[in-house]
Amino acid sequence: MFPHGVTSYILGGIIIGLGVSFVYILTGQHATQSSFFSSTISYFSKIPYFNRKTYLDSREWRLYFAAGVILGALLYTVTISPDGFWTTSVQWWRLLIGGFLVGFGTRLSSGCTSGHGISGIASMSTASLLAVITFIVVGVITANIILLLGVTP
Amino acid sequence: MNNRNIVLFVGGIVFGFGLAVGGMSKPEVVLSFLQLKDFGLIVLMGAATGVTFIAINVVPRFVEKPILGGEFKPRTRILNRNTVIGAVIFGVGWGFSGQCPGSALSSLGIGNLPVLLGIAAMFLGAYVMGRFFG
User: Fold this and answer.
1) Measured between alpha carbons, how far is B80 from B91 in angstroms, rounded to an integer?
2) Calpha distance A73→A65 (Å, rounded)
3) Cα A34 to the center of its chain, rounded Å
4) ω into A153 cis (within 30 of 0)
5) What is the per-residue pLDDT across B58-80, written as a single tens digit (0 to 9) for each?
6) How many angstroms separate the CA atoms of A15 and A22, rounded?
7) What are the residue ranges in chain B where pLDDT is below 50?
8) How far does A148 lie from chain B, in Å, by closest CA?
9) Dist CA B56 CA A42 (whole Å)
10) ipTM
């Protein structure tokens, strides 16, 4: 079940939780990820959906938050990472098609692994719990179908 | 940069650092969970949720409101058809590519440039959703 042990996963999870908690205790904001796409599109699009108050109010801090996430991973890479800079072997068309479905699905569902997964479940939201169970079950089925079709990686 | 943005920036750095420590910046690690080979992702999510649970449910008993103002409100979402259909579509994309929004951003930070394609596609997906189904 844990070919690489659990230490890095527990440690990573605690650090992520501390980041989310730090933001919540200081600002009351839920530091979640996927709204970043819709709120950033509001800078370029006049379509009413993207210009909702919730996106206009949050688009600035969501940019800072996203920049922080990138920088935090960079910081790890140049300090304690055992592998340094790293590139995926997952094929480009998987990143492209998968990315589109991730962008579409998370926005339709109003949450992703962080919004429904961390902040939603920690808020004891039934809708988020159901969403998490759904995307994990569907993700497992999809990943295994692709593996069975012989696509690697 | 106002105080709130500084907090979100610092919180983002911590979040991204944690994602990288936990291996989530690598689509391969996410896929190894979804292929049921390594259950670390669930452990990571559990640990992150446990810490956040304290911040959302326990801290407000001792601290009246957020230090920079505003109010403490748990994150609630109404369960409707879109919550579930969206989660199904996200699940397909997640299983297809091993990427989710946060992990993709952190992946950029570990130098994984091909993920730019995934992030661009996420923007496009979010645009199509809002434009035609919002």
Assistant:
1) 17
2) 13
3) 6
4) yes
5) 999 999 999 999 999 999 998 99
6) 10
7) none
8) 10
9) 29
10) 0.98
